[in-house]
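Researcher: Please translate sequence to structure tokens.
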Amino acid sequence: MSARKGAAVAPVRRRKRAEEEEEHENHERWMVSYADMVTLLLVLFIVLYAMSQIDISKYSQFKSGLVSGFGRADHILSGDSPMSDRTGGSSGGSEMVNPQMISNLPADQAELVKNAVAEANMQAKQRAYADAEGQVKSLLQLWKQMQSALSKKGLAGDVQAAIDERGLVVSLVSRHVVFEPNVATLTPRGDLILDTIAPVIASISEPIDVDGHTNQVKVKPKYYPTDWELSSARAVTALRRLSEHDGIPDRRLRATGFGHTKPLENPAVKGSQQINKRVDIVVLSQAPAESRALYQQAYAQLTKADRTQTQSQNKTGDKP
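Model: Translation complete:
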């Protein structure tokens, strides 16, 4: 009888012991979590205290050491101290450096900072120009595709192109009458020009500006109050052709009228109307502004290089 009673008590004791051990483990886990939290709070207070006690001279030495070590200027150079507010700002390294801070540095460290900033500025300009050159090459390739398509239909003389900070500007000049006189109606030749370049435009994703221009500085349009309305109507007519007939998505198109304000030739010059009365199809570049600002420079350099190469090839071909 006692043996059976002892056997029954044993499992109860084991369960009680297991419960006590589990409770102890839970208590230890809670203590560990609490200790971690206290430790983190302590570290936080130490960091806050350390930040409130800044040795400006040591901080300046620390910054100059970073500049000389990494060979470039970064945001750490801005402001009088690490706790100062940053207002404004610029991507240019020289504009981010506080001149007063540099003047307080030893001569050799100040020279290192200036050299690092100059190097950073030069590299930024080189990157922007390289990007601009690559973008201009892509735009010129796009123009060559349009030229090829137009030449096959004898329309190459009706269109001229340039590159500015906006992107590729393809001008449909009225030398061969793209628009009927005094109205915004495209001639059959004008329709054909747009239909010819439309497949090239459709092959890209950039937005397109359609800009209308006139040459009527002193002469009032016959059917419109001013040349502003006439130029806007011509831009809309070309836009509708690209959208409704050629299938260019509406979301990519925008029409603007400039009147006589942006002539390609001096309006006083005889024959200028054949150039100034036009519609520009502008492929708007999506490159950063700093790269687009260098487009005309890159375009001039590439055009000059192409002319030099062509002249060299012609001279070589002339030799017996």
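Researcher: Any highlights?
Model: The chain has a mean pLDDT of 78.
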